[in-house]
Automatic annotation (TrEMBL):
Name recorded for this polypeptide: Solute carrier family 12 member 1
Any one GO biological process: chloride ion homeostasis
Domain Amino acid permease/ SLC12A: 182-685
Compartments (UniProt record): Cell membrane
Superkingdom, natural source: Eukaryota
Gene3D superfamilies in the cross-refs: Amino acid/polyamine transporter I
């Protein structure tokens, strides 16, 4: 029901419209006239899913008011009325919709918002973004003429999408088929093959009517389950061209789809040769009977097959419409041939036919033929293997899904009906032929029963014929011996031959069309980059002409071989592998429980689909075990190849959905498990900013978290919330993609905050999930702390305090050149833009020269004037001058090299671990993990600990014992006994000079002045503070001296991070400690755990 603020909305007696939304057009610039007419305002209702522009607005008027609004709607476009309503006024008026009686830019639900760009079913529209609706509404917005509908509905379409939609409109004349001609006819023709006419009678003779029907039903069960799975997948969203490949790839992903798509297309191409050779063999048999052989049987098959495939190619290339007409004609012939057989069964048999075993319907024959009578070497499964290929072909309609008007409706209806009709026909033929024809017959009209002769009790004997000698010597007639039984039984034999021709040619034609269509869809997805050439389509139907030629070449090659008995089982297994994956796709999608899996075709069951997949795999081995093995090997190889290449596609496959479900289940299950020290692993928040701006910091962290711990690259956006959120949201996907592209196993997270410390505090508290929460904060050392503002230092030291408050370990990494390479990246981006502009200009000049035909410089300037490139050129020149003015040193080559130092393999050297304070073992665990990595495995651990001068050997032995219990290999242990000695005067002088700008020197001033200075600059280092912690300051300076002495040549130094007690040590003094401690050293990791055990020697 429509809602409106007006009090007389419900006065109309007419029934309400079925649409859910009432939309009023409001003119803000004419409030007075609107108010004057407020007693009876017009009501405009918009249909949510109108297919044509004319239905976008529907006028609901009261009696007597129609003429007032007749000129409001013309051809689906809002026009200017005679009243005071103006849709377009670039200064004062804005066009809005009134939905539920309120002015809003909110758009009503429409199908256009959910289409993909370039959709065949219609153009894609863009709804208003949440920002457009949420932000303050801008008044006096100019609305372009003719665009009011799009503004009001939040549509609008980028230029690229308009171009794509225009292209789709140009292709609107493409021929599309309904479910009968497109699916039903094709599936029936493909399922009814040569087997119906020349092998079904033999199958009934071997297996009997009972088991014969079981074989047919078992085959139908496989195809029916596959048909149900196909129908479910096909109705779970819009289906494009590609048939089985499209269904499998969009369900299971490119790995399965790409592997099965290639072999399925190849199988269809070879199937063309199989069917054509079957047709040619029938023709050659006729030539033999009439003694009209051209060369010899083998070469005649090649000649006739080659001519046939050329004709079929011509029909296919002529267009889908001609091919469809040919299919209809072939189906009519086939139906006539089948009807001819059933008619023949009731026509009284003559003596010649009786001698060949045909006696019309006889109960005795039915009873005799009901049970099996397998000959030597045959059994149920061998007979089933021969029949099953006759039941395939159910994907003939799905394979041309791109040429169907409504694939979601046509594929289920046509496929399932075709399976039903063909199954009924197969069972009908099997029962009829089993009730009319005996298993063995001599063909001799003189083998009749003479009075007084003993009868062997067979059905033929009871009907007056003695075929007992067939038990001792081979006979040429009967179900077991004559493949032309249907021709003999039929009313007119040549019609059966025509049916054989129709069955073979129709199947060949269907395969000839299917193979290029599937192959084209595979090539369009660019899974195999070398095959991109075959993706191009031609004409309004986007015909894959290149694919037709390739299919023709493959078919012709196998026709010339003329020996398909070996490869036929492999082709059958290729088709079965496709069926198995379709069934598995349906099961997998259901099992993943993705909200996006909601097929309109509800007659399916996930477990039945799984049973169908297993059944298909079993049938593959029943038909031919070595062919099944070959099929699996080829599919596995292609799967590995596609997985390795990792095509850049995202189809929302059920594999993704199941990965999410598995990850969610595992994360939830993990929460039920208590943490144990043996399972501790560093789970790090790394303050990299954009991950590409500090690659070295990310690399060293990734070195000890890869495959063992969580790594989250974090960025804090500081500034106005609106701008920060916009920038943050726009870069999230790009930065995560950068991590994936560079094979860094890490996540990217960002927050917008008023200050840096608040943002980090939010990340420390909220990052992670369940047990997968960060336990270590990794930050880069702030090299520019002396030039930084006070708030920056407070934030930097503050986040260290915050980490300790949250019981999170801290790692500070320092390298000589620093981490931030954002300036280098900016220069590289500028150079890339200049290079692109240069290439574009060169292309323009080249095009101009080719068009002007040697017009020279004058032609170039004419072209430049047309393209308006003069102005951008000047900008480019100025940019080039700017770059040229830069010295190469400004690119900071050392910084670039330093940013990649942890990507390189570290040569033989050492990782020096200065484990001065017991923090639970994190200071020791991180370097140990590093030595397990490929790039660091040649580095040995050297352990440095503090100790007493008179107990050096004892403490060395104790540490060695502890490390051996931890099972941590080490090269050397050094006990440093002189850590607490005073540093030399030069070193201490450097430290004093370092902190001098930040000292208060209150002791040199009177009490009043000192108190005033403390209030004005509370952040400065007081003399009292410096004196109170002088011993600790000595230690930091002394440690640097020892590090210079012992570890100057180390590849990496891991050092215990000193902790600044809150309220006791000022921020500037703490930064001075870190500076003097790590000055002039190799890369340093300052590590401090949360003082909870991360190492244990208990099992």
């Amino acid at each position: 029901m429509s809602l409106n603020n007006s009090s007389n909305v419900f006065l109309d007696s007419a029934p309400s419209n079925t649409n859910r939304f009432q939309v009023n057009v409001i003119n803000e610039g004419h409030e007075s006239s609107a108010a004057a007419d407020n007693s009876d305002p017009p009501h405009y209702e918009e249909t949510s899913f109108g297919d044509e522009a004319q239905t976008r607005f529907r006028i609901s008027f009261r009696p007597g008011k129609q003429e007032c609004y007749d000129n409001f709607l013309q051809n689906g476009e809002t026009t200017k009325t005679d009243a005071s309503f103006h849709v377009y006024d670039s200064h004062t008026n804005t066009y809005y919709l009134q939905t539920f009686g309120h002015n809003t830019m909110d758009a009503v639900p429409k199908i256009e918002y959910y289409r993909n760009t370039g959709s065949l079913s219609g153009p894609k529209a863009n709804r208003p973004s949440i920002l457009e609706i949420h932000e303050q509404l801008a008044k006096n917005v100019a609305v372009a003429p003719g665009s009011t509908d799009r503004v009001a509905n939040g549509d609008g379409m980028p230029g690229d999408e308009q171009a794509e939609n225009k292209e789709e409109e140009d292709k609107s004349g493409a021929v599309k088929f309904g479910w009968v001609k497109g699916v039903l006819v094709r599936c029936m023709l493909n399922i009814w093959g040569v087997m119906l006419f020349i092998r079904l009678s033999w199958i009934v003779g071997e297996a009997g009517i009972g088991l014969g029907v079981v074989i047919i039903l078992l085959s139908t069960m496989v195809t029916s389950i596959t048909g149900l799975s196909t129908s479910a997948i096909a109705t779970n969203g819009f289906v494009r061209g590609g048939g089985a490949y499209y269904l499998i790839s969009r369900s299971l992903g490119p790995e399965f789809g790409g592997s099965i798509g290639l072999i399925f297309a190849f199988a269809n191409a070879v199937a063309v040769a199989m069917y054509v050779v079957g047709f040619a063999e029938t023709v050659v048999d006729l030539l033999k009977e009439s003694d009209s052989m051209m060369v010899d049987p083998t070469n005649d098959i090649r000649i006739i097959g080659s001519i046939t495939v050329v004709i079929l190619l011509g029909i296919s290339v002529a267009g889908m419409e001609w091919e469809a007409k040919a299919q209809v004609i072939l189906l009519i012939i086939l139906l006539i041939a089948i009807a001819n057989f059933f008619i023949g069964t009731v026509i009284p048999s003559n003596n010649e036919k009786k001698s060949r075993g045909f006696f019309n319907y006889q109960a005795s024959i039915f009873a005799e033929n009901f049970g099996p009578s397998f000959t030597k070497g045959e059994g149920f499964f061998s007979v089933f293997a021969i029949f099953f290929p006759a039941a395939t072909g159910i994907l003939a309609g799905a394979n041309i899904s791109g040429d169907l008007e409504d694939p979601q409706d046509a594929i289920p209806r046509g496929t399932m009906l075709a399976i039903f009709i063909t199954t009924v026909a197969y069972i009908g033929v099997a029962i009829c032929v089993g009730a009319c024809v005996v298993r063995d017959a001599t063909g001799n009209m003189n083998d009749t029963i003479i009075s007084g002769m003993n009868c062997n009790g067979s059905a033929a004997c009871g009907l007056g014929y003695d075929f007992s000698r067939c038990q001792h010597e081979p006979c040429q007639y009967g179900l077991m011996n004559n493949f032309q039984v249907m021709s003999m039984v039929s009313g007119f034999g040549p019609l059966i031959t025509a049916g054989i021709f129709s069955a073979t040619l129709s199947s060949a034609l269907a395969s000839l069309v299917s193979a290029p269509k599937v192959f084209q869809a595979l090539c369009k997805d660019n899974i195999y980059k070398a095959l991109q050439f075959f993706a191009k389509g031609y004409g309004k139907n986007n015909e894959p002409l290149r694919g037709y030629v390739l299919t023709f070449v493959i078919a012709m090659a196998f026709i010339l071989i003329a020996e398909l008995n070996t490869i036929a089982p492999i082709i059958s297994n290729f088709f079965l592998a496709s069926y198995a994956l379709i069934n598995f796709s349906c099961f997998h999608a259901s099992y993943a429980k993705s909200p996006g899996w909601r097929p309109a075709y509800g007659i399916y069951n996930m477990w039945v689909s799984l049973f169908g997949a297993v059944l298909c795999c079993a049938v593959m081995f029943v038909i031919n075990w070595w062919a099944a093995v070959i099929t699996y090997i080829i599919e596995f190889f292609l799967y590995i190849y596609v997985t390795y290449k990792k095509p850049d596609v995202n189809w929302g496959s059920s594999t993704q959905a199941l990965s999410y479900v598995s990850a969610l289940d595992n994360a939830l299950e993990l929460t039920t498990v208590e943490d144990h020290v043996k399972n501790f692993r560093p789970q790090c928040i790394v303050l990299t900013g954009g991950p590409m701006t500090r690659p070295a910091l990310l690399d060293i962290t990734h070195a000890f978290t890869k495959n063992s711990g969580l790594c989250i690259c974090c960025e804090v956006f500081v500034g106005p919330r609106k701008l920060c959120v916009k920038e943050m949201n726009s870069g999230m996907a790009k930065k995560q993609a950068w991590l994936i592209k560079n094979k860094i196993k890490a996540f990217y997270a960002a927050v917008a905050a008023d200050c840096f410390r608040d943002g980090v505090r939010s990340l420390l508290q909220a990052s992670g999930l369940g047990r997968m929460k960060p336990n270590t904060l990794v930050i880069g050392y702030k090299r520019n702390w002396r030039k930084a503002q006070l708030t920056e230092i407070e934030n930097y030291v503050g986040i260290i305090h915050d980490a300790f408050d949250f019981e999170i370990g801290v790692v500070i990494v320092r390298i000589s050149q620093g981490f931030d390479i954002s300036q280098v990246l900016q220069v590289q981006d500028e150079l890339e833009k200049l290079e692109q502009e240069r290439l574009a200009l060169e292309a323009t000049i080249k095009d101009n020269e080719s068009e002007e035909g040697g017009g020279g410089i004058r032609g170039l300037f004419k072209k430049a004037g047309k393209l308006n490139i003069t102005k951008p050129t000047s900008k480019k020149d100025s940019s080039i001058n700017t770059v040229q003015s830069m010295h190469v040193g400004e690119f900071n080559q050392k910084l670039v090299e330093a940013s990649t130092q942890f990507k390189k393999k570290q040569g033989k050297g050492t990782i020096d671990v200065w484990w001065l304070f017991d923090d639970g073992g994190l200071t020791l665990l991180i370097p140990y993990i590093l030595t397990l990595r490929k790039k660091w495995k040649d580095c040995k651990l050297r352990i440095y600990v503090g100790g007493k001068v008179n107990r050096i050997e004892e403490e060395k032995i104790a540490m060695a014992s502890l490390l051996s219990k931890f099972r941590i290999k080490f090269a050397e242990i050094h006990v440093i006994g002189d850590i607490n000695m005073k540093p030399n005067k030069e070193s201490w002088k450097v430290f004093e000079e370092m902190i001098e700008p930040y000292r208060l020197h209150e002791s040199c001033k009177d009490l009043t002045t000192a108190e005033k200075l403390k209030r004005e600059t509370p952040w400065k280092i007081t003399d009292a503070e410096l004196e109170a912690i002088k011993e600790k300051s000595y230690r930091q300076v002394r440690l640097n001296e020892l590090l210079q002495e012992h570890s100057r040549a180390a590849n990496l130094i891991v050092l215990s991070l000193p902790v600044a007690r809150k309220g006791s040590i000022s921020d500037w003094l703490y930064m001075a400690w870190l500076e003097i401690l790590t000055k002039n050293l190799p890369p340093v990791l300052l590590v401090r755990g949360n003082h909870k055990n991360v190492l244990t020697f208990y099992s």
